[in-house]
Amino acid sequence: MKVRDLTELAARNLREALLRNSLTTIGIAVGVASLVSLCSLGVGLQQFADKRLASSGLFNAVFVAPRMNGRFGRDERQAPGSGDRQRALDETARSEILKLPHVVEAYPEIRFTTEILYAGNPYMSMVAGIPESDRTDGAFDGMQGAFFSDPRANEAILQIEFAKQLAAQPQSLIGKNINLRYAEREVLIDGSPNPTRSAKSDPNSGLSPGFSVIPRQTQLRVVGIVETEPAVGFGGIGRGRVLIPEALAEKLSAAQSNDLREILRGGSTSRTFPSLTVLVKTASDVAEAENAIKNMGFSTFSLLDATKNIRLAFTVFDLFLLIFGSLALVVASLGIINTLVMAILERRREIGVLKALGASDRDVRKLFFAEAGAMGCVGGIIGVVLGWLIGQALTFGTNVYLHRQDLPSIQISAVPWWMITMAILFSIVVSLAAGLYPATRAARLNPVEALRYE
Questions:
Q1: 111-118 and 177-187: which strand pairing?
Q2: Which of 11, 176, 238, 257 lies at 20 to 30 Å from 88 by C-alpha?
Q3: Residue extents of the structural domains in the chain
Q4: Does residue 179 contact residue 145 with C-beta atoms inside 8 Å?
Q5: Nearest Cα residue to 235 out of 96, 97, 73
Q6: For the chain, which ranges sit under pLDDT 50?
Q7: What predicted TM-score, i.e. pTM, was given to this entire model?
Q8: pLDDT value at position 229?
Q9: What is the per-residue pLDDT across 69-80, written as a single tens digit (0 to 9) for each?
Q10: pLDDT at 222
Q11: What pairs with residue 226 in β-bridges?
Q12: β strands within 81-203, DSSP E
């Protein structure tokens, strides 16, 4: 039997029992719609999580810290005279890291406690440096005001909770000036104290002073208010409540807790960093950069392993959604079996005539497969559309709730092209599988008995 004749005959048979075949097709469409809507939620949530992590710049970041060993994070230092000392994470090491392939930026974690003066009142707060690359950080989405106008500008972004301490209306602080009091770290020349700025060192202490601490004050203009507290550093610790440009933070040379620790431990008098954040071009370059930095003698940490676990969790989640969504499609396949079995009983004489005219068992089987496949294809297409509409309705309802909570909108449903294709193909395969028994039964009919059937 030619394909054209087979198609015309299958279409005519479907039109003759239009109501029954339509209801069966709708059942398939409902099953596909449930499958698509559930899977679209899993894909949408995964894309949302990936987008948020990618916009934070954490996917292509390597966090670097001085190498530690022993239990409870004790430093990897040798006993005096027993070997090389732990390598300092200083400006020299930073320059070497910047020369590595695929590295685009390496900035230190600068945080220090200071006093903020506003309207004549002092407030203690943590100040942190923010690199220019954080302009696209998801933490700054929806912030009031603007990001820094220049990497070295005397500007500040306040965290919302700290801004509320300064003023009842936080947004009124934008454009106002605040004074920053901090302790400047000044390196001493030749390891000797500057008599005009510091006291003499104790010759019996066995320690060479490396820097002096000088009180300083600078004025900052508030340019923005951020709702969340961005995370950074080795382990993702919160940055601070007053954010300033990274270049300005380095220029201030404020004393940090690790400065005194290095001097007391007999470390280098040069400026060292508690950690560095190294950004590479793409996430695929992280492993290479991480290995190179480890070979330089530093500890590293990246989110590669963490993201693998996240993706594994989403894969399992998607699998469960696929299983539950497929149940409705399996139920719909029972409707196909019922419809085609009824068609066999109603068309026994027709099947007998076809076989008497020379149609083989294979031709009869193809005819019923074509009818089942047509219902699966049409039901799959309608189901994909319904599933997409259900996903959009869920996204709309979620965003209405989020807007009432003063939260930004999100897209929780996504129907990519591969899902559309797979859903329609899956619908056709299930329909063909459901039509296997009726097609085989119809092909086995004896043409003589079929012609006698009334």
A1: antiparallel
A2: 238
A3: 3-54+309-452, 60-93+277-302, 110-272
A4: no
A5: 73
A6: 69-84, 191-208, 231-237
A7: 0.54
A8: 59
A9: 443 344 444 434
A10: 93
A11: 159
A12: 103-108, 111-118, 121-130, 144-145, 155-159, 177-187
